[in-house]
Amino acid sequence: MAEFIEHGQWIYEVEYRLAFGYIHPHGHPGTGFSFLCDEHGQIIEIGPYARYNLHLAISNFIDGKMTMGIETYEYRHRQPSVIRCECGATVELWDVDCNDCDQCGRMFNGSGQQVNGSWASMPEWYDQEAIDTERMESVMYGGTSW
Predict the structure, then answer these.
(1) Is 5 part of any domain?
(2) How far is CA 125 from CA 67, 104, 139, in A?
(3) pLDDT for the residue numbered 26
């Protein structure tokens, strides 16, 4: 039986960007610059090319060619459950149906239950070289050919 190391969870993140948008007729609507910042508009990380673009954006804002504001982006992603396989390796449960142990080949569903043994122990279902399709079809479909 696999042991749960970590249960999956939703990770919620918020990102702020100091955004500059061109005002028509100075540029196309929806174009401009944005820079990663905190919720107060303080730039977080900026390289030399981005620093040049920030200078350009601020100049255009001062000249009345761009708007400026802080945009908020909220997103979430799933952190998968992690189990310890009987062989000792860890397995991340990304998939609902099939998550393979890289070390021993055991398969687990998204709930951490082992399913159908392992592909490596069922050569009639899995051909390592994947070239003997006729033999595979014969096993899978009882000798009938398409």
Answers:
(1) no
(2) 61, 17, 8
(3) 73
Q: What are the backbone angles phi and psi of residue 119, rounded to the nearest 5°?
A: -60, -40
What are the tens digits of pLDDT across the range 34-55? 999 999 999 998 999 999 999 9
CA 18 to mean position of chain CA atoms? 25
Select from 48, 77, 106 the last residue of a domain: 77
145 lies in some domain:
no
Going by the DSSP 8-state scheme, the letter that residue 43 receives in this structure is: B
Look at the block and give the residue holding tokens 């979430």: 76
Domain extent for 90: 81-140
Q: What residue type is assigned to position 35 of the chain?
A: F
Q: What is the pTM of this model?
A: 0.56
Give the least confident one: 14-23, 24-33, 34-43.
24-33
Q: What angle do CA 9, 1, 113 make, to 5 degrees?
A: 55
Distance, CA of 61 to chain centre:
35
Tell me which residue of 139, 81, 98 sits closest to 90, measured CA to CA: 81
Residue 141, both tokens? 């479909």
